[in-house]
Design brief:
two-stranded antiparallel ribbon; alpha/beta; 14 helices; 45% helix
Length: 340
């Protein structure tokens, strides 16, 4: 039996057992391949009308390529014509992924912090589909126009997350991406902007505040920061009426949500020694002790994405995370009517 024939016995067995007829090892996968190739042949027949043939244009063999679908890999034979004017629609030139749903799934998995290599392994295991890390990266790059529009939108205060990013020479260096989280007059949260710089300082924060001002912000009532260098003075030079406060509560709260209820009290007691340390070295030493005690049980608390290949890769992942969490920001903050 050749690859384009359907194994009806296998199909019947899979149907009775409830297995997928399409997908990895599905009995009907060859049918999909046959349908695609037949559609391409039909397109070529329609393309080579009498006028084309009279001008000397004719068939010129076929080109084989592997195409990824949500049902697995298929091999298509794309017909070619002599003058190269044939442009198929069934499987377009240089198209290697047919299912838009698959591309969306790749972007959603990437947004969870999964590496391109792990995504590739997942699709190979679950769908018998081979996707290179380069292909996955190209798919996730589709969000860049969306990021550009989002960053320049008009607006109706800041915490830093540090990541490892590869510089122009391929060395892993530390970058901080600063997310400006705001609460508008109706009590709804929104990320106002993301800013990646090699180092922070007065000039950096002036650029951030000026960007917010240029995009419509006229006043900030309270700015909650974590002792960021140069920020308090700079923000008051642009928004002089702003009250600046220091806070680490949200960092502790974000860590606690990964810990089981029965362990939260003890974990919080241990974790507070990190934020209550008198120096950076002391805090790191306390963090190592917390990791030794709780890291194996709750690895998500100590989770690290690793090294990003570039600043744009870092920005892409953080934006996708924002897009996901912002879907939950549908209601004003509790008791906002009393505050406003």
């Amino acid at each position: 039996m050749n690859n384009l024939e359907i194994d009806y016995k296998k199909a019947a067995q899979q149907l009775r057992s409830g297995e997928a007829l399409f997908g990895k090892d599905g009995a009907l996968v060859p049918m999909l391949e046959r349908i695609l190739n037949a559609a391409l042949e039909g397109e070529m027949d329609a393309h080579l009308n009498s006028d084309d043939r009279s001008s000397g244009n004719c068939r010129n063999g076929k080109m084989s390529k592997t195409v990824q679908t949500k049902y697995g890999e298929v091999t298509v034979e794309t017909p070619r014509d002599c003058d190269g004017s044939f442009k198929p629609e069934t499987v377009k030139k240089r198209e290697t992924i047919l299912a838009e749903g698959m591309a969306d799934q790749i972007i959603n998995i990437y947004a969870l912090g999964t590496s391109t290599r792990d995504i590739s392994k997942y699709f190979e295991r679950e769908f018998n589909t081979t996707l290179s890390a380069e292909t996955i990266s190209a798919i996730t790059d589709r969000v860049f126009p969306e990021i550009t529009a989002w960053k320049s939108r008009m607006l109706d205060l800041v915490y830093a997350i540090h990541y490892k990013v590869k510089d122009d020479k391929g060395r892993a260096v530390t970058r901080a991406i600063y997310n400006v989280l705001g609460i508008n007059k109706s009590g709804h949260k929104d990320i106002l902007g993301m800013y990646i710089f090699e180092s922070e300082g007065a000039n950096f924060w002036l650029d951030v505040m000026t960007d917010l001002q240029n995009r419509g912000v006229r006043d900030i009532l309270i700015c909650c920061v974590d002792g960021l260098k140069g920020f308090p003075d700079t923000i008051q030079s642009v928004f002089p009426e702003t009250s600046v406060q220091l806070c680490v509560v949200h960092q502790i709260r974000n860590s606690i949500k990964y810990v089981g209820n029965k362990h939260q009290k003890e974990f919080l007691k241990n974790f507070k020694t990190v934020y209550g340390a008198v120096s950076k070295d002391s805090a790191l030493a306390q963090l190592d002790m917390v990791d030794e005690k709780w890291g194996e049980m709750y690895p998500m608390v100590m989770k690290n994405k690793g090294v990003f290949p570039s600043d744009t890769a870092l920005e892409k992942l953080v934006y996708l995370a924002y897009r996901d969490i912002s879907e939950k920001w549908t209601m004003p903050l509790p008791n906002w009517a009393l505050i406003s």
